[in-house]
Amino acid sequence: MLARIDMRPSLLVPLLLLSTSALASPRGNDGGGNGSGRLGQVSSGIRTATNGGGNGSGARSSPTGNLDIYPRCPEGYRRRIYDERCVLVRRPVAVLAPGLTTAVVAEGGRAPDPGPGHFEGYVAAQKVFESDGALTAELAIQDSRFRLTGAITRYYEGQLGGTVLTMTMPSLAFGVRIDDSSATRVILEGGVVGAKTHNDPVMDSSITGALLGVRVEHAMSPKLAVVANAHAMAFQDDVQAGQIRAGVRYGHIQAAFTVLDFNVGPALYGPELGVRF
């Protein structure tokens, strides 16, 4: 029998706040270099990292367009692409630790037993702060112990020239349930993820990488549940990202707050409303 992992709702809030602080870092100005919003800055950061930007040491164009010589960052630091500052390297995988080490016994509702293998679906729309929005679709095969999830999220943002910049992120993950609680389900996941931009003003980019994460669902009653997930993503060219979704579900309706934070640009975050079936 695997070790029991339970979780009280009272610990979900500090857990999520701690996870969010692990992802957050000081931001530069909110305006993009081409009049774009946050998605434009993320696209620019990915493009720079995958086209010879590396960790930002040595000669490179500055945000003002002048060629400057930047000193090498100290050991353990990297140069942030979108504002040229040296920042301490934080590995997104650290966001998983609190969810695996601070769990206690839960009381209240019962999570429905998944029983034999069945399909689960989720579709949602998100409003992204200082950008436009995102659409998410997810389909999973779930049984009492294992889960296979395919998902796709597309962020979109209008540009000054009338085009729409998009970033599409497909993923495929295999999960294993590690708890034995009737009220709380905890699923560890691992898989692959990609990110592809389209209509970038300079050049489109495409990257692939690995994904590791955890899903948590705590039933407060037969219809009401608290849901959360956290994923760390490691791409090529030292591009990394962390994603957190936290919210509540009543019946089939789910309201959440979602954050996607790349290390090469500002965080994409905002409220999300969806339907789970």
Q: Biggest β-sheet, characterized?
A: 10 strands, antiparallel, barrel
First-last Cα distance: 30 Å
Query: What Rg do the Cα atoms give?
Result: 20 Å
Average of the residue pLDDT scores: 77
N-to-C SSE series? HHEEEEHEEEEEEEEEE
Residues in helix, %: 10-25%
Question: Tell me, what's the shape?
Answer: globular
Query: What's the total helix number?
Result: 3
Strand line-up across the major sheet: 5-6-7-8-9-10-11-12-13-14
Q: Structural class, from secondary structure content?
A: mainly beta
Portion in beta strands: over 45%
Catalogue the unreliable spans. 1-35, 53-69, 92-112
Structure keywords:
277 residues; mainly beta; 10-stranded antiparallel β-barrel; two-stranded antiparallel sheet; 3 helices; 14 strands; globular; disordered N terminus
Description:
The structure is a single chain. The chain is mostly beta strands. Helices cover 13% and strands 48% of the residues. It has 3 helices and 14 strands. The chain has helices at residues 9-23, 38-53, 97-101; strands spanning 58-61, 67-70, 77-79, 86-88, 118-127, 133-142, 146-158, 164-177, 184-198, 206-219, 224-235, 240-250, 253-262, 268-276. Strands 5-6-7-8-9-10-11-12-13-14 form a 10-stranded antiparallel beta barrel. A hairpin with a 4-residue loop joins strand 11 (224-235) and strand 12. The two termini are 30 Å apart. Mean pLDDT is 77; it is low at 1-35, 53-69 and 92-112.
